[in-house]
Every structure is written in C-alpha cells, then in structure tokens.
Design goal:
alpha+beta, 15 helices, 461 residues, 6-stranded antiparallel β-sheet
C-alpha cells in the first residue's frame, strides 16, 4: 500500500474516534496552589462546577484525606453511631436535595482525589461537607431527641455608619470549634465559577462552602455567622445547609438575595445567626435563621453582634432550650462584652480594632481578664472544671482562627486572617492529652495549634 493511502486511512480513523476526556493538565490549567502562608493554604479554583471540583480534589488531596479521617473519627465518637449511618444519610437524605451544579462539583472533588491516589468516594465527600448539620442536628432528629444541638461556636460582629471610623462597614469573626478540626480549618479559597460571583472565603479542605462562613464576593457582599446556641430542630426534606450557604455566597447581590436563598428549602441544619454586609449600599444586617422563625434586621447606621445567643423571643421559646437569664454561660457573657465594646468604641471601629476585639480576654461574669469560654477569644481548654455546655471538662476547643475586613478591603476582595488564637496563646496537643487522658482517643489526630500573626489575602490578579 502506498504511503499516501496509509496516511489517508489513519487520518480517517482519527477523525472518527470519539473525543478523549480532558486530561488532568487541561482541567488544572487555570488553578494553582501557593506555598503555605502563616498557617494558611491558598488555592485558586476556576471554571465549570466539575472543573472547580476536580481542581479542589487534586490540589488539596493530602489535606482532604487527613480532614476526612478526623471528621469521621469525631462523628463516630460523639454520636455513638457507626460511620455507615452517616454515609447512608448522605446518600438517602441529603443527596436528593443537592442541585445539579453542586453535584457536579462534589463528583469533581472525588475524581480529583482519585487521580492523586486518594480512595475516597462520593458519600465520603458529602458527609465531609455536611458534618456540621449531620451531628448533632440530624442525629437528634433520628433519635427523636430535643436536646442541645449546638454549644458555643464563634464570635462575630458587623458595624457601619456612626459606629465605624470612616462610616463604612467593618466585619470580623473568629471560628470556635474543637482543635482537632480547627487546626485543619486553614484553607483560603479564591473561586471563580463559570456562573455567579467570584468568592474569597476561608474553609476546610474538601468543603464546597466555607463551613464557618466568612467570605466576600465580587458584588460587594460579605458574609459571616455564629451558630444559634441550644437549637433543636431539623427537617430531612429540606435543602442541606452546606448547599444553601455556598449558593448564597456565590449568587447574592444584596442582603435580600442572601436571605431568600438561605430561607428557600431551609432544613434547620447548622442553624445560624448570619451577619451580612452589603458594601455597595453601606448596609449591615442580621439574619436569624431558625427552622420556623426567620428574623431579618438591617441597618445603615448601627451594628449587629453574634456569640451564639438567639435574640428573637419567639425563636427562643419555640426552637431552643436557651437559658436567657444565665449570665454565666458563654453566649450571654460574650454578648454583654460585645455590646460594651461597641459602645466604648463607637465612631472608632476599624480593621485594627476589629482584630483586637477577636483577641479579647475580658470575662464579664467574673469581671476580670482571664481567657476561657466566656471571652471573645475562646479557650475552652482553659475553662474551669465543670464548665458547661462543653463536656467533658477541659475540652480541647476554642477560637481556632480569625478573619476581618473593612469596606476598602471588601471592595478589593481582600481580607485579613490569623490562624490560631489571635491573642498569641498556643495550644500543645501532647501536653493536653497527658494532662487529660479522657482525650486519649484523639492523640493520633489532635495537633498543636500555634498562634500566627495577622496576614492579608486577596484574590489572584
């Protein structure tokens, strides 16, 4: 056969062959990971939901594998249920209510993980994304128990108008959680989706949402929250909280947008008081999102604070077991401290003061400086014996990381962040387990939590 004929046949065969799947290199073309910065890992993800998911799983594979193991151990230990219970819930309860774009992203994470040799599957990744609403909210629902679903998680504020130095919004938040998870809450995501708004947010490896929920989008919306303490409601027919939280951050162009997205299909899981900034309208808001009771308040000349206390009397009565008059509990003590700081610093609040507030150690119940569970910079591991609602005593938990931004930063899509306690105190895992052997089960997953200084992050230019 002549050479020309051979070439014609080969050309025809090649043109008839089905198109090949995109190779990893093409899906990673617009994504990257930067060297660690003061305890944080910065990743840039860009493209379709499937591409963003693949980039996420591929670039953060070691961190996702490690974080999933920690979350799995915590879910099983704290719920007294086997891991299969949570995988089944992910598949049968949550997945039917996950919309297609986020299904594609979650599947993409699995594909990226598998490409790096990490053998996790879709239900592992869904459990990871939903761990904050699976336990204890869903667990309590299944067990038909009405009991405390959340304890003390996070301190935060938003302010604008006469309360801030330049009359424009300031937002700040520290994330309270157990140190075993909190030491892994160190990813800074810069996400450019094919649809919706660009987002800069903190998060955990493997989560498509922030989880502790601090983020900024390119429509000038800044978002954070603190959980509603002592909340006890869940609707298995609702849309998972992690889906609504991600969608609200991605698509909101106003406070009303955010409220609408979060309310639609609300399942009550991971119930929060959301603190919001609309930077373009110089407005701040509080969205107290119970399952039955939803209260939206807004201001162009005021502040809202969060410390895990429910504010609305009807919500308190119908959906919580919150001890309103007990000023010795963390939520009430910190609420009192927030109000005092807002009053004392009225007209002067800026980024530097916001950072200072998050490291505050004044205990309003004992009326003195002492780091513990009643201070804005929480140190549950240092709280007195018998402290509640954290059980058992000396739980290795507290304020694991911090974020803040002012109006100019929100406009530029920047934020300031500090990994670990912003006050400068470090946590030493080995010593804690030695002193408190009841936490021996955590010895292989509990890490030191070093305090790092504040550093600034911006979207990739």
């Amino acid at each position: 056969m002549k050479l020309a004929s051979v070439l014609l046949i080969c050309s025809a065969l090649l043109s008839a062959a089905p198109a090949r799947e995109p190779q990893p290199e093409s899906r990673l073309k617009k994504a990257f990971r930067r060297p660690d910065q003061k305890g944080w890992v910065f990743v840039h993800l860009e493209g379709s939901p499937a591409e963003i998911g693949y980039q996420h799983g591929y670039l953060l594979a070691p961190e996702i594998e490690d974080t999933q193991a920690v979350i799995k151990a915590g879910l099983v230990h704290e719920s007294k249920k086997d891991y299969a219970f949570f995988r089944t819930a992910a598949e049968s309860v949550l997945w039917p209510h996950v919309e297609e774009q986020y299904r594609e992203e979650l599947k993409g994470i699995v594909e990226g993980l598998n490409a790096k040799g990490v053998r996790l599957d879709l239900w592992d990744v869904v459990v990871l994304n939903a761990w904050l609403e699976l336990s204890p909210y869903y667990v309590n629902y299944v067990d038909k128990q009405r009991k405390v679903a959340t304890a003390e998680h996070c301190s935060a504020f938003v302010a604008t108008g006469k309360y801030t130095k330049d009359g424009k919004p300031v937002i700040a938040h520290n994330n309270w959680t157990e140190y075993k998870e909190g030491s892994r809450w160190n990813i800074m995501f810069d996400i450019v989706p094919a649809k919706g708004h660009r987002m800069l947010m903190d998060g955990m490896a493997g989560l498509i949402h922030s989880g502790d929920d601090f983020g900024i989008n390119d429509a000038g919306i800044a978002i954070t929250e603190t959980t509603i303490g002592y909340f006890s409601r869940f609707d298995p027919q609702g849309i998972p909280e992690f889906v609504r939280a991600r969608k609200a951050m991605q698509y909101s162009e106003s406070i009303d947008d955010f409220a609408r997205i979060m309310k639609k299909g609300n399942n009550g899981g991971y119930a929060n008081n959301w603190l919001l900034v609309d930077n373009r309208r110089n407005e701040v808001a509080s969205l107290e999102l119970g399952l039955k009771n939803v209260i939206l308040k807004r201001s162009k000349d005021g502040y809202f604070v969060g410390s895990n206390y429910p504010a609305d009397p009807k919500l308190i009565r119908e959906e919580t077991d919150f001890p309103v008059t007990d000023m010795g509990i963390s939520a009430n003590a910190r609420h009192k401290r927030w109000d005092a700081l807002m009053a004392e610093n009225k007209g002067n609040i800026d980024l530097l003061l916001a950072q200072k507030f998050l490291g505050d150690h004044f205990d309003t119940f004992d009326n003195k400086e002492q780091p513990g569970e009643r201070t804005l910079c929480g140190h549950i591991d240092l709280s007195p014996r018998g402290s509640k609602p954290w059980e058992p005593e000396y739980a290795p938990a507290g304020a694991v990381q911090n974020k803040a931004a002012d109006s100019a930063m929100i406009e530029r899509m920047e934020l300031s962040a500090a990994m670990g306690h912003s006050c400068g105190l470090d946590f030493h895992a080995k010593q804690h387990v030695a002193d408190h052997p009841e936490f021996g089960w955590e010895k292989d997953i509990l890490r030191d939590l070093d305090s790092h200084g504040w550093t600034q992050f911006a979207v990739a230019r």
